[in-house]
Automatic annotation (TrEMBL):
It comes from Knoellia remsis. It comes from the Bacteria. It holds the Pfam family Abhydrolase_1. InterPro entries: AB_hydrolase_1, AB_hydrolase_fold, AB_hydrolase_sf, Epox_hydrolase-like. This is Pimeloyl-ACP methyl ester carboxylesterase.
Amino acid sequence: MGRVSTAVGLGAAAAAAVGAAAAGVKADRVAADRRRLGVLDPEGGFTHTAGKELTVVAADGVQLHVEVDEPAEPDPALPTVVLTHGYTLSLRSWIFQRRALVKAGYRVVLWDQRNHGRSEASDLGQLTMEQLADDLRAVIDAAAPEGPVALVGHSMGGMTTMALARHHADLVKERVVAVALLATAAAGDGITDLGLGPLVGRAIGQGAPRLLSRLAPTQRWLSPVRKAGRRVEDAVIDFYGFDSPVSEELVRFAADIILATPFEVMAAFIPVLRDHDEIDTLAAFADKDALVLCGEGDKLTPLDRSELIAERLPEAEFVVVRDAGHLIMLEHPELVTGQILALLDRAEARSAAAEATARTGRGTTGRKTKRTITDIAKGRKVKAARTKAARTKADSTTARPSKTKNGPRKAGS
């Protein structure tokens, strides 16, 4: 069970890892090597009070939890930014982006996809991409009924965004001015390989629904033993979620979100992701300002997934982040937020350019190229923290009393 548990996927693997810990598997077997640094934690912590909370009723009656943040002086000319989270996550995963976007003057709408976070659970048979697209449409209609909209989707949230373009083309055509697709895929074939290759990874990935369904009845009994199995749990989240140093608190924050998702929901969504295919739908975003962003070390939606999207959206900004994994918006929050803000700036500039084109009859377009960037600011923080830790360790070693043949000797004597 321990071997299988570490390869089921971000949510599934974490769940199975806790089960493995409960069964007595030694955590040392999957201990993380990466150092976690508290200096990387945000000043405001990991909690946020929404400006407003809504309950949006989906077409089939399921109640969706929605939160809205508004700037002190909202500008109606700016688009409302709608953030859609990924598989086994919740709107809490956008904690850093929502703060920054509101500070920059944007109205922000976030929601928990059905059976995730604080949204109501529907029948598992209702978990389809078409249904998720309908849910997103309902959220936009209720929380942002007028004005321009910018869509930002991570992982499964990006897939939901693509599905929206197919099932609600009118909304996308008329109101969407920008779209950001983060760490996602336009086709689900092989998406459960988990970075282990098509043979081993796919075999384990396809067995995940059955494994998780078997674990589901025991989920409520696992909470008391999670503390004992933290090292296993953290190691799996760390391995599949990140590709650079992150703090212990961030790993715990991510793990708490992921493991709040019921195992049977994790299981039900895996075939939905695997059968996802919206490659042709990407054409609906061809005339929008678009951002395709992924981590170079993403094991769940690898680089080639984003490359395929970028091929279909040649005018999109295609950004690859070094030392970044699947949970890129948590791992490199300032960098990701900066790219989203740059996208919104381009959308505003495009609007102005469109007006100029209408007057002059001239416009410009051009194919974008892939850019690979590094989070320099985070790198500096990590280096400074490690240097400080090394000095502290050296000072404590120097100050530690040493023993001689005649007994203890004070430092410096």
